[in-house]
Fold:
Amino acid sequence: MKIPLSYTLRNLWMRRLTTLLTAGGMALVVFVFATVLMLEEGLRKTLVETGSYDNVVVIRRSAQTEVQSAIDRPQAALIESQPEVAVGADGERMVSKETVVLVNLNKRDSGKPTNVMVRGVAPRGLTLRPQAKIIAGRMFSPGASEIVAGRNAAERFKGAGIGETLWFGQREWRVVGTFDAGKSGFDSEIWGDSDQLMQAFRRPVYSALLIKLDDPASFNAVKARLESDQRLTVEAKRETMFYADQSEMLAGFIRYLGLTLSIIFSVGAVIGAMITMYASVASRTAEIGTLRALGFRQGSVMAAFMFEAILLGFVGGCGGLFLASFMQFFTISTMNWQSFSELAFSFSLTPGIAAKTLAFALVMGLVGGFLPAMQAARLPIIDALRAA
Amino acid sequence: MNQIAQPVVEIRNLAKSYRRGDQIVPVLTNITFDIAAGDYVALMGPSGSGKSTLLNLIAGIDKPDSGILRVGGIDITALGEAELANWRSRNVGFIFQFYNLMPVLTAFENVELPLLLTDLPARERADHVNAALSMVGLSDRMEHFPSELSGGQQQRVAIARAIITDPTILVADEPTGDLDRVAAEDVLKMLDQLNRELGKTIIMVTHDPHSAAKARTVQHLDKGELRQA
Structure:
């Protein structure tokens, strides 16, 4: 029961200024909605991609983060000796005993100080993280006061560029290289020799151990053994899960704040759509009467106006998505409250987010159009024809 | 002619009133008459006499309070909303005073509208629309929008739309009320032609005695009742 689509499309086109303004209002709301989802996705991706599935992070039980954790040398030796640990081509066990400290560095643009994670890694640590590659300069030399900075850290912090020096742990450290860790959280870190950092910060203990499993499926066995060993008070997590857990608080905050704002804004956009559709019904009362007189049913009239409202939502949705897609070019950095360090990440647009966003826009159109469409369908024919 | 033809519209004791606040205002009382197939009836009367209401009842866009109203043998007062819409799409062709064309549709699309409610495929619909528009002399204006046509041309498009489904009756409410003398004459000639050559049953409401004179039968209404001329 078919009022032609061209009738709806041309009506929207005829009132194109109103159509554009209403769709524009919706586009702004859609933009906020999409941006929030993209931000959350970007954060999740950054932290999840930070880990590898066959790596296990061992930290002190209930420590939550590496910074809070401490594992002494005898415990580390015990963990290193587990049979599931992979052995490298050189016959060495694939374990990185790491020290993680927070240092205070000034941002290049604002000069404001912020926490940056400095990770002491064993030379072995690099082979455990194949995604990290030196893109400029060279790797630090073991035993020297040299450091390499992640791509984001090098760009954002004073003294973190190649050839520059940083002062922390009562020592001067020379930046000899920049590494790219594939947009993961490591890009916001500074890496140096683990033993040197432990000396500088006078730490007798490691923060965490990163072990590579010979077979990723043996994770449960090694986890059970480590966590039930009376000599150890540690917790083992897959590296992917470890970083995903770290994103939980910040991602949750972004999601709830963003979605609350989106919902409040969307009420405004829905009211806008409703006003537009009521005006559309009012200006076409005689046409509605004529269509009904010609034999088009109430359902057809309702469907035509609903389609018009949904189309408004679709135009708004596409506009908002188009705007939001540009956000992918931006990288933002903020404090990750779980690790208390600065973390840089990008907005990430996925097909899933595009689908959710369009669905959100269509629902706005649907809700905004429902009452006006109902009014149009229920107009008594005689009264509607009198409006001519 | 009325005596020999079958009545296409049978009206018995038809009554209609409207509610205005707490008051009930009678508009039509005890209307009884027949319209024969192929007749051309003019409903005349002063403003408020109920002639448009009667036309609306016959066309099935309004419902009477009481009485019998059969069109083409069907008691249309017993039809539900959806059935009535179906019935109108097949049996009634509307010609309005202000043409009531869809401004965003072309002349062709406006005439095609009622056919969208049938099962005809697009090609056959196009054939019908072409034939109807050439019958009203607008073959060269098919792609024009109403705003690009004169009043007379718009009313001719409306006439083409009214006859496109070959309905049982054509109802026309002041079809010349918004036209200049020449265009009005043109439209009246066309209605006359439809009645004489194609045998269409036409029921027309008009104020204008000149228009009414073209009809075969004239019914006068006054204060909601039929008066013999």
Summary: Helices of chain B lie at 51-59, 81-91, 107-112, 122-135, 151-163, 181-198, 209-212. Chain B has one domain: 37-63+79-227.
